[in-house]
Amino acid sequence: PPCAPLSDADLRSYLGPGGRLLRPQDLRLHVFHGGVEPGLRKVVWRYLLNVFPAGLTGQERLSHLRLKAAEYSSLKVALASRAAPAELAQVAAAVRKDVVRTDRAHPYFGGPEEGHPHLAALQELLTAFALGHPRLSYCQGMSDVAAPLLAVLDDEAQAFLCFC
């Protein structure tokens, strides 16, 4: 049955000692039936999108995010250096077509296109994904999925993890 959106108190009821998620299925059902309060999306989406291995404490989750951010930085460099210049240009152009169409009325993506840090982060995230998944590459509309992740998480590496 429908219920109220997941609140901070509700989320804490699913966590045990050290901040371990004890009942992931119950958390998923609560979100399915009631949604999530907007201020908690940044936290809850990482659980829902399996960013964290099961059983991590709060401190272990922070360490995991730092490790994954470093891995993402290394991955971007490796993918860009490994790709042929023509492939990189083709992927970047395909991604760019959608990135510039991102909802510019949203405050996170508003403002001038030139030098916009959030549009650049979206471009980097989607290009890295396409180069890292050559059989899939980039498909029109992927930016529509990645943009809300980036806007809510406000972190390119975490948005990449969630997108993957």
In short:
This protein is mainly α. 62% of the residues lie in helices and 0% in strands.
Overview of the structural elements:
- By secondary structure, the chain is mainly alpha-helical.
- The chain has two domains: 8-49, no CATH class; 58-163, putative rabgap domain of human tbc1 domain family member 14 like domains (Helicase, Ruva Protein, domain 3, Orthogonal Bundle).
- 62% of the residues lie in helices and 0% in strands.
- The mean pLDDT is 95.
- One of its GO terms (biological process) is regulation of autophagosome maturation.
Task: Please outline the helices and strands.
Elements: H1 8-13, H2 24-34, H3 41-48, H4 58-82, H5 85-99, H6 117-132, H7 142-153, H8 156-163
Domain Rab-GAP TBC: 35-164
Protein name: TBC25 protein
Keywords: GTPase activation
The CATH C-level class name of the largest domain: Mainly Alpha
Point out poorly predicted stretches. Answer: none
Largest sheet properties: none
Beta strand %: under 5%
Question: How much is the radius of gyration in Å?
Answer: 18 Å
User: For the residues shown, what is the average pLDDT?
Assistant: 95
Which series of helices and strands comes N to C? HHHHHHHH
Total number of strands: 0
- Total helix count? 8
Number of domains: 2
Oligomer: single chain
Helical content (DSSP H or I, runs of 4+): 55-70%
CATH level-two architecture of the largest domain: Orthogonal Bundle
Would you give the CATH topology of the largest domain?
Helicase, Ruva Protein, domain 3
Look at the structure and name the CATH superfamily of the largest domain. Answer: putative rabgap domain of human tbc1 domain family member 14 like domains
Q: Which overall shape is indicated by the principal axes computed on the Cα atoms?
A: globular
Quote the distance from N terminus to C terminus: 31 Å
Structural class: mainly alpha
